[in-house]
Design brief:
The chain is of the alpha+beta class. The chain contains nine helices and seven strands; from the N terminus they run ααααββαβααββααββ.
Length: about 270
């Protein structure tokens, strides 16, 4: 009886935690679902526009619905638009460098990159914004000057590793050291919990890598080794997603920060 009474509250909290996570992922899930559906429907109907262009119309309409229904606030929309711009710039560079391609034709394309691609980065921003609001996140011992500098280096490394040695391992190690004592606090069912901030980066990065495999399977984009036949995305991309999550977290905390009376505590609230 004692074991059962202990397990039941734990199971209830896990269900609450999972449900909040699902709500945080609404936009990301809708984007991936749109990509999958557009692939599954291909060949069954004659679309008046290309698939990539149709996806852009879809994600724009999706964004409008999210703001109109209150699923996202206007301030969150501004942050998400920033993610779209930053992500689209990176996509244009990576496609030009041959890191991956968008093999299908389209009209709404810039430098070989369909405009819908920026919304995949926006989906990451949406998740983090939603997580801050729905979990009432607070980060202790947070130093945005330190993590911000590392985030800039991480973003720069996505470009510079094409000409100089890849520094991602060093940057990841620096992130681990800099954030080792930082805790992210979150609320589930009226109770406060915490986990080390770098652990949250790793967990989110892993699920983004899983989502990347799903997206490439349905033709969202294509790596060189996926031409002709789909292959699982190399596990090395996992580290790139961890860096992207770190950068995304810094962007959200910089653009949506409310500092409490304690200098070492940062909370982000939707306004």
């Amino acid at each position: 009886m004692g074991v059962q009474s202990a397990i039941t509250p734990f199971a209830a909290q896990m269900l609450r935690f999972t449900w909040i996570q699902v709500q945080c992922c609404y936009f990301a899930v809708a984007v991936v679902a749109g990509i999958a559906l557009s692939t599954l429907l291909r060949g069954y109907w004659d679309a008046p526009i290309g698939r990539y262009d149709a996806l852009f119309v879809y994600v724009v309409a999706l964004q409008i619905v999210f703001v109109a229904t209150g699923l996202e606030t206007r301030r969150e929309l501004v942050v998400i638009c920033m993610f779209h711009i930053v992500g689209l710039a990176l996509e244009c560079f990576k496609v030009a460098a041959g890191s991956w391609t968008y093999p299908e034709p389209g009209v709404l394309v810039v430098a070989g990159v369909p405009l819908y691609a920026g919304f995949m980065y926006a989906a990451v921003g949406s998740y983090i914004c939603q997580a801050f609001r729905r979990f009432d996140l607070t980060v202790t011992r947070y130093r945005i000057s330190v993590v911000g500098t590392l985030a800039v280096l991480a973003y720069a490394n996505f470009y510079t590793h094409h000409w100089i040695p890849d520094l991602r391992v060093l940057i990841l190690a620096a992130f681990a050291v800099a954030t080792a004592r930082m805790k992210v606090w979150f609320t589930v069912g009226g109770h406060r919990y915490w986990m080390p901030l770098p652990v949250s980066f790793v967990l989110i990065g892993f699920f983004l890598w899983v989502a990347e495999n799903i997206a490439t399977y349905f033709g969202a984009w294509e790596y060189p080794d996926q031409e002709g036949v789909w292959r699982m995305v190399h596990l090395g991309k996992f580290s790139s997603w961890i860096l992207l999550v770190s950068l995304s977290f810094v962007l959200v905390s910089a653009l949506m920060t409310h500092r409490t009376s304690r200098d070492d505590v940062v909370a982000v609230h939707a306004q």
